[in-house]
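haha ok so turns out i had the wrong file open the whole time. this is the CORRECT one, sorry everyone. sequence first:
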Amino acid sequence: MNLGSTTIAAWASLTLASLVLPGMSEAQASALTPQHRVEGGSYPDFLGGVGAAPVVVEPFLLDRHAVTVGQYRDFIHTHPTWARGAVPVVLSEASYLASWTSDTDPGSDAARPVTQVSWHAARAYCRAAGRRLPTESEWEWAARADATRADAMDDPAFVARILDWYAHPGRGRAAVGTGEANVWGVRELHGVIWEWVEDFGAAMVASDDRERARFEDQVCGAGSLGVGSPTQYATFMRYAFRSSLRANFALSTLGFRCAGDLPPPVPREVP
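then structure:
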Protein backbone atom coordinates (compact mmCIF):
# COMPACT_ATOMS: atom_id res chain seq x y z
CA MET A 1 0.00 0.00 0.00
CA ASN A 2 1.30 3.45 -0.89
CA LEU A 3 1.34 5.96 1.91
CA GLY A 4 0.15 9.50 1.39
CA SER A 5 2.93 12.05 0.87
CA THR A 6 2.18 13.79 4.18
CA THR A 7 2.42 10.52 6.10
CA ILE A 8 5.61 9.54 4.26
CA ALA A 9 7.29 12.88 4.88
CA ALA A 10 6.42 12.90 8.58
CA TRP A 11 7.60 9.33 9.09
CA ALA A 12 10.78 9.85 7.10
CA SER A 13 11.66 13.00 9.02
CA LEU A 14 11.52 11.04 12.26
CA THR A 15 13.55 8.21 10.76
CA LEU A 16 16.22 10.42 9.25
CA ALA A 17 16.51 12.40 12.46
CA SER A 18 18.02 9.32 14.06
CA LEU A 19 20.79 9.16 11.44
CA VAL A 20 23.94 11.24 11.44
CA LEU A 21 23.66 13.60 8.48
CA PRO A 22 26.38 16.22 8.72
CA GLY A 23 27.07 18.39 5.72
CA MET A 24 29.38 17.29 2.96
CA SER A 25 33.11 17.86 3.04
CA GLU A 26 34.53 20.98 1.44
CA ALA A 27 35.77 18.95 -1.53
CA GLN A 28 32.36 17.35 -2.01
CA ALA A 29 30.61 20.67 -1.71
CA SER A 30 32.81 22.12 -4.46
CA ALA A 31 31.93 19.14 -6.67
CA LEU A 32 28.18 19.55 -6.31
CA THR A 33 26.18 19.91 -9.50
CA PRO A 34 25.69 23.59 -10.41
CA GLN A 35 22.13 24.77 -9.97
CA HIS A 36 20.19 26.96 -12.36
CA ARG A 37 17.37 29.33 -11.59
CA VAL A 38 14.03 28.19 -12.98
CA GLU A 39 11.68 31.11 -13.27
CA GLY A 40 8.20 30.68 -11.90
CA GLY A 41 5.17 30.07 -14.04
CA SER A 42 1.96 28.11 -14.27
CA TYR A 43 0.62 25.19 -16.23
CA PRO A 44 -2.72 23.37 -16.52
CA ASP A 45 -3.58 21.04 -13.67
CA PHE A 46 -3.14 17.75 -15.47
CA LEU A 47 -5.42 15.83 -13.10
CA GLY A 48 -7.83 18.63 -12.27
CA GLY A 49 -10.15 18.32 -15.23
CA VAL A 50 -11.80 21.08 -17.23
CA GLY A 51 -12.02 24.36 -15.36
CA ALA A 52 -9.44 23.48 -12.71
CA ALA A 53 -7.16 26.25 -11.50
CA PRO A 54 -3.64 26.09 -13.00
CA VAL A 55 -0.67 24.85 -11.00
CA VAL A 56 1.43 27.83 -9.96
CA VAL A 57 5.16 27.41 -9.35
CA GLU A 58 7.39 29.97 -7.69
CA PRO A 59 10.99 30.48 -8.88
CA PHE A 60 13.42 27.88 -7.55
CA LEU A 61 16.83 26.34 -8.15
CA LEU A 62 17.38 22.99 -9.87
CA ASP A 63 20.50 20.90 -10.48
CA ARG A 64 21.82 21.14 -14.02
CA HIS A 65 21.80 17.34 -14.26
CA ALA A 66 21.05 14.27 -12.20
CA VAL A 67 23.32 13.27 -9.32
CA THR A 68 26.07 11.04 -10.70
CA VAL A 69 27.44 7.70 -9.58
CA GLY A 70 30.70 9.42 -8.64
CA GLN A 71 28.98 12.09 -6.57
CA TYR A 72 26.92 9.49 -4.72
CA ARG A 73 30.03 7.37 -4.10
CA ASP A 74 31.73 10.35 -2.47
CA PHE A 75 28.63 10.97 -0.36
CA ILE A 76 28.76 7.39 0.92
CA HIS A 77 32.43 7.72 1.85
CA THR A 78 31.56 10.47 4.33
CA HIS A 79 28.11 9.12 5.22
CA PRO A 80 28.71 5.37 5.67
CA THR A 81 25.24 4.83 7.12
CA TRP A 82 24.09 5.05 3.48
CA ALA A 83 26.54 2.46 2.14
CA ARG A 84 25.10 -0.68 0.60
CA GLY A 85 24.65 -3.26 3.33
CA ALA A 86 24.27 -0.62 6.05
CA VAL A 87 20.85 0.71 5.06
CA PRO A 88 17.88 -1.06 6.69
CA VAL A 89 15.27 -2.48 4.35
CA VAL A 90 12.68 -0.03 5.64
CA LEU A 91 14.76 2.75 4.05
CA SER A 92 15.80 0.91 0.91
CA GLU A 93 15.01 -2.49 -0.52
CA ALA A 94 17.63 -5.15 -1.28
CA SER A 95 18.26 -3.81 -4.80
CA TYR A 96 19.85 -0.64 -3.35
CA LEU A 97 23.06 -0.05 -5.36
CA ALA A 98 22.95 -3.74 -6.36
CA SER A 99 24.97 -3.16 -9.53
CA TRP A 100 27.97 -1.73 -7.62
CA THR A 101 31.08 -3.89 -7.37
CA SER A 102 31.16 -3.49 -3.58
CA ASP A 103 29.29 -1.71 -0.82
CA THR A 104 31.20 1.51 -1.41
CA ASP A 105 32.68 1.12 -4.91
CA PRO A 106 30.51 1.45 -8.02
CA GLY A 107 33.30 0.36 -10.34
CA SER A 108 33.07 2.40 -13.51
CA ASP A 109 30.34 4.71 -14.81
CA ALA A 110 31.18 7.57 -12.44
CA ALA A 111 29.77 10.13 -14.89
CA ARG A 112 26.46 8.37 -15.34
CA PRO A 113 23.41 9.19 -13.23
CA VAL A 114 23.15 7.14 -10.08
CA THR A 115 20.17 4.80 -9.89
CA GLN A 116 19.01 2.06 -7.53
CA VAL A 117 18.60 4.62 -4.75
CA SER A 118 15.49 5.00 -2.65
CA TRP A 119 13.53 8.17 -1.93
CA HIS A 120 15.00 8.15 1.57
CA ALA A 121 18.55 7.92 0.22
CA ALA A 122 17.98 10.64 -2.38
CA ARG A 123 16.50 12.87 0.30
CA ALA A 124 19.46 12.25 2.60
CA TYR A 125 21.94 13.16 -0.14
CA CYS A 126 20.18 16.42 -0.93
CA ARG A 127 19.85 17.24 2.75
CA ALA A 128 23.56 16.72 3.34
CA ALA A 129 24.24 19.02 0.38
CA GLY A 130 22.05 21.76 1.87
CA ARG A 131 19.48 21.14 -0.83
CA ARG A 132 16.21 19.24 -1.18
CA LEU A 133 14.30 17.12 -3.65
CA PRO A 134 12.14 19.10 -6.08
CA THR A 135 8.40 19.00 -5.60
CA GLU A 136 6.38 17.31 -8.29
CA SER A 137 5.04 20.64 -9.55
CA GLU A 138 8.56 22.10 -9.72
CA TRP A 139 9.89 19.10 -11.63
CA GLU A 140 6.95 19.05 -14.02
CA TRP A 141 7.26 22.77 -14.71
CA ALA A 142 10.99 22.53 -15.46
CA ALA A 143 10.37 19.46 -17.64
CA ARG A 144 7.89 21.32 -19.84
CA ALA A 145 10.69 23.47 -21.27
CA ASP A 146 12.68 22.84 -24.41
CA ALA A 147 15.74 24.73 -25.62
CA THR A 148 13.84 27.90 -26.47
CA ARG A 149 10.46 27.80 -24.69
CA ALA A 150 9.46 27.65 -21.04
CA ASP A 151 6.48 25.50 -22.01
CA ALA A 152 6.73 23.30 -25.11
CA MET A 153 4.11 20.73 -24.18
CA ASP A 154 1.81 21.86 -26.98
CA ASP A 155 4.48 20.91 -29.53
CA PRO A 156 3.73 17.40 -30.87
CA ALA A 157 7.37 16.88 -31.85
CA PHE A 158 8.57 17.63 -28.30
CA VAL A 159 6.04 15.23 -26.78
CA ALA A 160 6.90 12.57 -29.37
CA ARG A 161 10.58 12.68 -28.35
CA ILE A 162 9.63 12.07 -24.74
CA LEU A 163 7.32 9.19 -25.65
CA ASP A 164 10.03 7.62 -27.78
CA TRP A 165 12.20 7.15 -24.71
CA TYR A 166 9.28 5.78 -22.70
CA ALA A 167 8.81 3.21 -25.46
CA HIS A 168 12.49 2.15 -25.28
CA PRO A 169 13.59 2.59 -21.65
CA GLY A 170 16.31 -0.05 -21.88
CA ARG A 171 18.59 1.83 -24.26
CA GLY A 172 21.10 2.60 -21.52
CA ARG A 173 22.10 5.57 -19.42
CA ALA A 174 24.18 8.28 -21.04
CA ALA A 175 26.74 10.29 -19.11
CA VAL A 176 25.24 13.42 -17.58
CA GLY A 177 25.64 16.65 -19.46
CA THR A 178 25.39 15.07 -22.90
CA GLY A 179 21.80 16.13 -23.54
CA GLU A 180 20.58 19.46 -24.82
CA ALA A 181 20.00 22.13 -22.18
CA ASN A 182 16.51 23.50 -21.92
CA VAL A 183 15.72 27.20 -21.69
CA TRP A 184 16.66 27.18 -17.98
CA GLY A 185 20.02 25.52 -18.58
CA VAL A 186 18.81 22.20 -17.12
CA ARG A 187 19.64 18.98 -18.94
CA GLU A 188 18.24 15.47 -19.31
CA LEU A 189 14.92 15.77 -17.52
CA HIS A 190 13.75 13.39 -20.24
CA GLY A 191 15.44 10.57 -22.09
CA VAL A 192 17.83 9.14 -19.50
CA ILE A 193 16.20 8.09 -16.19
CA TRP A 194 13.08 8.62 -14.11
CA GLU A 195 13.66 10.94 -11.14
CA TRP A 196 12.40 11.07 -7.57
CA VAL A 197 10.38 14.06 -6.40
CA GLU A 198 9.58 15.02 -2.81
CA ASP A 199 5.83 14.38 -2.98
CA PHE A 200 5.95 11.47 -5.42
CA GLY A 201 2.83 9.74 -4.09
CA ALA A 202 0.52 12.72 -3.77
CA ALA A 203 -0.96 13.16 -7.23
CA MET A 204 -3.03 10.06 -7.92
CA VAL A 205 -3.23 8.16 -4.64
CA ALA A 206 -5.11 9.64 -1.71
CA SER A 207 -3.80 9.27 1.83
CA ASP A 208 -7.05 7.56 2.81
CA ASP A 209 -8.14 4.43 0.94
CA ARG A 210 -11.76 5.55 1.21
CA GLU A 211 -10.95 8.58 -0.98
CA ARG A 212 -9.59 6.49 -3.83
CA ALA A 213 -11.33 5.83 -7.10
CA ARG A 214 -11.19 2.39 -8.68
CA PHE A 215 -7.62 1.09 -8.68
CA GLU A 216 -7.62 0.43 -12.43
CA ASP A 217 -8.69 4.02 -13.09
CA GLN A 218 -5.64 5.33 -11.24
CA VAL A 219 -2.75 3.23 -12.49
CA CYS A 220 -3.87 1.93 -15.88
CA GLY A 221 -4.33 3.62 -19.23
CA ALA A 222 -8.02 4.16 -18.48
CA GLY A 223 -6.98 6.72 -15.91
CA SER A 224 -5.97 9.12 -18.67
CA LEU A 225 -9.69 9.53 -19.49
CA GLY A 226 -10.18 11.52 -16.31
CA VAL A 227 -7.32 13.97 -16.71
CA GLY A 228 -7.50 17.48 -18.09
CA SER A 229 -5.67 16.66 -21.31
CA PRO A 230 -5.81 12.95 -22.26
CA THR A 231 -3.62 13.57 -25.29
CA GLN A 232 -0.61 14.22 -23.03
CA TYR A 233 0.04 10.57 -22.41
CA ALA A 234 3.71 11.18 -21.55
CA THR A 235 2.66 13.29 -18.57
CA PHE A 236 0.11 10.69 -17.52
CA MET A 237 2.79 8.00 -17.56
CA ARG A 238 4.98 10.01 -15.16
CA TYR A 239 2.10 10.58 -12.72
CA ALA A 240 1.09 6.92 -12.86
CA PHE A 241 4.69 5.74 -12.43
CA ARG A 242 5.23 7.92 -9.36
CA SER A 243 2.01 6.71 -7.79
CA SER A 244 3.19 3.12 -8.13
CA LEU A 245 6.33 3.77 -6.08
CA ARG A 246 7.11 3.14 -2.46
CA ALA A 247 9.69 5.22 -0.62
CA ASN A 248 12.12 2.31 -0.22
CA PHE A 249 12.08 1.25 -3.89
CA ALA A 250 15.51 1.18 -5.56
CA LEU A 251 15.02 0.79 -9.31
CA SER A 252 17.63 0.56 -12.05
CA THR A 253 15.86 3.30 -14.04
CA LEU A 254 15.21 5.70 -11.15
CA GLY A 255 17.60 8.37 -9.88
CA PHE A 256 17.32 11.96 -8.71
CA ARG A 257 18.55 15.52 -8.78
CA CYS A 258 18.32 18.17 -6.09
CA ALA A 259 16.48 21.46 -5.97
CA GLY A 260 16.96 24.52 -3.82
CA ASP A 261 15.24 27.61 -2.56
CA LEU A 262 16.25 31.02 -3.79
CA PRO A 263 17.90 33.21 -1.16
CA PRO A 264 15.61 35.88 0.25
CA PRO A 265 16.05 39.31 -1.30
CA VAL A 266 18.49 41.60 0.45
CA PRO A 267 16.62 44.51 2.05
CA ARG A 268 17.48 47.80 0.44
CA GLU A 269 18.46 50.62 2.72
CA VAL A 270 16.09 53.53 2.66
CA PRO A 271 18.05 56.77 2.28
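Residues 5-260 form a domain with the paralog of FGE (formylglycine-generating enzyme) fold (CATH 3.90.1580).
again sry for the mixup
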